[in-house]
Give the backbone structure.
Amino acid sequence: DESDAQEMFAEEARLAGHVTHPNVVHVLGHGEIEGQPYLTLEYVPGCDLWRLNRRLTLESKRLEHDLVVYVVRQILNGLDAVHGATDQNGSALGIVHRDISPSNVLISIHGDVKIADFGIARSGVNAFEANTAVRANGKLGYLAPEQVSGGRVDRRADLFSTGVIAAELFMRRPLFAGGSELAVLLAIRDAEVHPFVEFLPQLPEGLGAVILNALSANIEERPPTARAFWAALEPWQSRPEDVLRAELAKLVASIVADLSLIHISEP
């Protein structure tokens, strides 16, 4: 019954419908049935990156460095398509996802990595402006400093969020942690990434610097595009892509199998 919510839903369908890419969950259709709007989305059999990372943490395991790089580069592939999306006339839409976080990165049992959820995405040619002061603007720990401070948000905010994901996959713990939401927001605003800086000696030389560039509070110091970030990480994806994809698929398949057993055992 909320008109703003209905407009956001319609905008998600409109924007996501313009993006067709293997690293983005595909919108198959949308419409309305008896006054209820719906989206028909591609089904991704597997789990999200949050669940994968949680499982690894519980088992005191971590992804190999090149596998982390592979996952992050797949996310950046998807973002490149999102940011470069055009309308039917070939005009740039200027989409910014604004909610890149582990729960919005789906990984299939085949090793696919796909960006999901355009619920708070914004386009340079938006049909409306939602009340962002009321609605949650992304998962707290993955916001970019300019989202926290209310500054101008462009595609480089998505690159900051991707940098946070990369840092956390390497460290196996949150980058921005605090005793309160305010403490987390202040840490993000000031780009206090010292936990990752302290972790740098455990990474191959040069890799940490690429991630730190994306985590800069100054958007001008970040990579200019997802493709530039993707290219900068290439030297550290040391094993063949098909090998990394198969390894990721195996990890996800084991998680899905365990979840199936849990569900079967429930009364």
About this structure: The chain has a mean pLDDT of 87.
